[in-house]
Amino acid sequence: MKTYLTLDKELRSETDLAIIANLERKGWVLAPQPPFNPETQQCNWVDGEWVVAPIPPTLYNAEQWLTKEGYGATQLVTLLDLYASLTAEGKSSEKLNAVKAWTNAILGEYVQSNQPKENWGTAPFSFNETVIEAYQELGITLS
Q: What is the total count of domains within the chain?
């Protein structure tokens, strides 16, 4: 178990009891962390004291969000190819169209503001669902 000690606003973390005792003889004093919920809060040593604060939200740029939702670069290229194939045959896929509109909205918003966000919106369908429907529209049988 970690034991925290401080001297002149400096913080040390030790686990060895002999080292802890030696540091205390040299003037270091115990500085236990205050209670906090590690799932929602962070506890940091700032200017000689513990500071408990909420964990800031994770921010994503558009590309990171698309990847998180299952639509990384490879998946987007696959969907573009499927979209082109469907268009060439005069067909369409509702799921593919919905995913295309969703990605276009995200990319359009990002191009305008270029700011990361906590949430860009959930994909309307998974990549697998979208591909399966597009394949069905193209008459491609999956085995």
A: 2
- C-alpha span between 64 and 107 (Å, rounded): 11
Residue 49 to residue 6: CA distance in whole angstroms: 9
* Domain contains 143: no
Distance between CA atoms of residues 127 and 82, nearest Å: 12
- CA 101 – CA 107 distance, rounded (Å): 10
Residues in the chain with pLDDT values less than 70: none
pLDDT for residue 13: 96
Same domain, 30 and 76: no
What is the predicted pLDDT for the residue at 141?
87
Q: Are 8 and 35 in contact (CB under 8 A)?
A: no
Distance of CA 115 to the CA centre of its chain: 15
Strand partners, 11: 6
- The residue behind tokens 């995200």 is 106
**Tell me, what's the pLDDT at 45?**
97
